Amino acid sequence: MIGGDIILFALLFVTAVNLARCLSALRSLLYIMRNVHPLLYQQVDGRGFFSPQGNLSKQVRLYYYIKSKEYTHHHDELFTAKCDRVRQLFILCVALIVVTTVAAFIL
């Protein structure tokens, strides 16, 4: 039989890969946002988003922008597609973190 440690390790690996995918998609969204929506790029502190000195309240602004789907009325299709992708990956990543945490306590 498959041990609980192997299942937990597999879940941790899948969660880490999806977290990396989410961060990569977010980085590409910020790159596109710089050209397509410069005002929002400044509001979410695009240049310092991934820096240790990044402003958390500005980063939360991007979270609520994507969560409430304010991007649906934007004119650029690439920007809306990237926002959808980041939103889907974020939901997947949160679900995987919850499942991994539950599995860690059960196994």
TrEMBL record:
Pfam families: UspB (PF10625). InterPro entries: Universal_stress_protein_B (IPR019598). It is found in: Cell inner membrane. The keyword DNA repair does not apply. GO terms for cellular component: plasma membrane. Its main location: membrane. The chain crosses the membrane at residues 6-26, 89-106. It comes from the Bacteria. It is a multi-pass membrane protein. Keywords: Cell inner membrane, Cell membrane, Membrane, Transmembrane, Transmembrane helix. Belongs to the universal stress protein B family. This is Universal stress protein B. It comes from Vibrio eleionomae.
